[in-house]
Amino acid sequence: MRIAELGLAVGQSVEIRGWVLSLRKSGGIRFVVVRDGSGQVQMVLREKDVSPEVWEASAGLAQETAIIARGRCRADARAPSGVEIDLDDVQVVGPSGDYPIQPKEHGVDFLLDHRHLWLRSQRQAAIMRVRSRFEQAIRNWLDHEGFIAADTPILTPSACEGTTTLFETTYFEQKAYLSQSGQLYNEALAQALGKVYCFGPAFRAERSKTRRHLIEFWMVEPEMAFTDLDGCLETVEQMLSYAIGQVVERCPDDLRLLGRDPEELAQVRPPFPRISYDEALGILREQGLEIPWGEDFGAPHEAAISERFKLPVFVHRYPTSAKAFYMKPDPERPEVVLSADLLAPEGYGEIVGGGQRIDDYDLLLRRLHEHDLPQEDYDWYLDLRRYGSVPHSGFGLGIERTLAWMLKLEHVRETIPFPRMLYRLRP
Ligand code: 4AD
Ligand code: MG
């Protein structure tokens, strides 16, 4: 039985398979706290109730010893899990000794070097459970809304998000790059299937060492035919608030453990506020953080803008010059594009980027040239504008940045099992 389900087993005999967190001895009685990935529970062993062999073996239950324990589940109002187990038997499956991570403060480099073990800690396991729930909820929402899950390639011949962050590799005699985004392929798939999404790793060889940057991160990217910018933003806010609602409903204890009040997250409901880039510049001016029109925001600017709002806020219509080649200029104001970034509250910055794509062949060709991108690599992409081109939009939501905000984490590195960062490829 899993520890999370013990509440249903009061008065029954149970078997728990897990790892020892701690052992405390007090005369003829021993308290063993065990975790199994679903939760943790205290078990009580009394010398008078067990065989001498079991009593003796239990004396050496060091931290992270793997055990199978059998006993009776009893309600205990003082226990965090609401139950305790009176043990009859403990069997050691895998011994442990000198476990490197002790119940004390460790430096983050030490913890990252031991990431394979750090993941066993209560906080890290809670983050991974929330991550799983969040990803699953996104998939469920998209599936329910009729999106087709389409898996786009990781090995690609060309750039999607600018050539400066491409991760180069070899592909037999050719050069190839790890995917920065599945978007361009999604656009082809949206013309085949209407509404699609990809959900996979994205790679950016960015020499950034900030609390928001990973070299390898996960992104969900929906793409919709016959959809404009407004339709795109509605999809973002619906999908995100549904997935957050599922985390609130299914992981309230994990949220509390991580210091996030579930009630607070439950307030994240549509509609999210929408402001233009120009309005955002006005906010920055008021805060003494003025930047020239045309420049993209940095982390301090995004933080200052989001401070004005309780909910995530869309900033739309960025200067054309600051954004990717595929973004559609606003027909009423071609110096801005029909794009939007979603900025998370509390200074966590951009969690979603997206918008409407260029659907006109000639304009797309011109923009490719302006961005110095080799036309032959994008001939297939231009084809999409030659055969039944339609207004279409999509976005990418970064899983790690969104989780860092939801879970009030200092850094994105804790939101992914094995973070890949500028100076970290191991373990
Ligand atoms: O804004 P980005 O670069 O947009 C795209 O890649 C589009 N092609 C997506 C689309 O329209 N289909 O990235 C989208 C999101 C960002 O808002 C951020 O959440 C996340 O991906 N992201 C990163 N997360 C962690 N580390 C990095 N280095 C990231 N770069 C982007
Ligand atoms: Mg972006």
How are the elements arranged and paired?
Layout: E1 13-26, E2 29-35, E3 40-46, H1 52-58, E4 66-75, E5 83-94, H2 108-113, H3 115-118, H4 122-144, E6 148-149, E7 155-156, E8 167-171, E9 174-178, H5 183-193, E10 195-203, E11 216-225, H6 229-250, H7 252-257, H8 262-266, E12 274-276, H9 277-286, H10 299-306, E13 313-316, E14 329-330, E15 333-337, E16 339-344, E17 349-356, H11 361-370, H12 379-383, E18 392-398, H13 399-406
Helix pairs in contact: 4-6
| CA radius of gyration | 26 Å
* Name of the top-level CATH class of the largest domain: Alpha Beta
CATH homologous superfamily name of the largest domain?
A: Bira Bifunctional Protein, Domain 2
User: How large is the count of helical segments?
Assistant: 13
Question: What is the fold-level CATH name, i.e. the topology of the largest domain?
Answer: BirA Bifunctional Protein, domain 2
Strand content: 25-35%
Q: Could you say which small molecules are bound to this protein?
A: 4-amino-1,4-dioxobutan-2-aminium adenosine-5'-monophosphate, magnesium ion
Biggest sheet: strand arrangement: 6-10-11-18-17-16-13-12
Architecture per CATH nomenclature, i.e. the level-2 architecture of the largest domain: 2-Layer Sandwich
Main beta-sheet strand count, sense and barrel state: 8 strands, mixed
How many DSSP E strands? Answer: 18
**What is the end-to-end distance?**
31 Å
Low-confidence stretches: none
Helix content: 25-40%
Oligomer: single chain
What would you call the shape?
elongated
Q: How would you classify the helix and strand content by structural class?
A: alpha+beta
